[in-house]
Amino acid sequence: RTSRNSVGQFMAKKKGVRTAERDIFLDNVRDPQKIIIQLRKLVDVARRQGFAIAIGHPYPETLQALQEYKGELLRRVKVVGVGAVVK
User: Fold this and answer.
1) 3-state DSSP call for residue 42?
2) 27-65 burial code (b ≥16 CB/10 A, e <16)
3) Which residue of 28, 39, 43, 60 is most buried, as measured by CB atoms within 10 A?
4) Which residue, 37, 55, 51, 46, is CA-closest to 1?
5) pLDDT by residue (tens digit) across 50-79?
6) Cα(40)–Cα(47) distance, rounded to whole angstroms?
7) Is 44 helix (H, G, I), strand (E, B) or coil?
């Protein structure tokens, strides 16, 4: 879900399809340091509730932030595809 008006989750549930909702949107602001702040929030959510889902774009700034924070991210949580969370 990218906005409050998204209907994908509603429609999927209506059809009996398992769904999950994002916890963190990574790159509302296209600044690597702001994205790293979002990644830190993602880790906090994951540690608190046992999992977390982030979405973002393949912007150069997002990719840079992921590269910079990758080591810390992988030390603190296990990274899996969203399909593993939905199951």
Assistant:
1) helix
2) beeeebeebbebbeebbebbeeeebbbbebeeeebbeeb
3) 39
4) 55
5) 999 999 999 999 999 999 999 999 999 999
6) 11
7) helix
Please report the pLDDT score of residue 4 as a whole number: 76
Q: Tell me how far CA of residue 77 lies from CA of 13, 14, 38, 86, in angstroms.
A: 28, 32, 15, 17
pTM value is: 0.86
Amino acid making up residue 67: Q
Residues 6 or more apart in contact with residue 7 via CB below 8 angstroms: none
Question: What type of residue sits at position 12?
Answer: A
Report the alpha-carbon distance of residue 59 to residue 6 in Å, rounded.
22
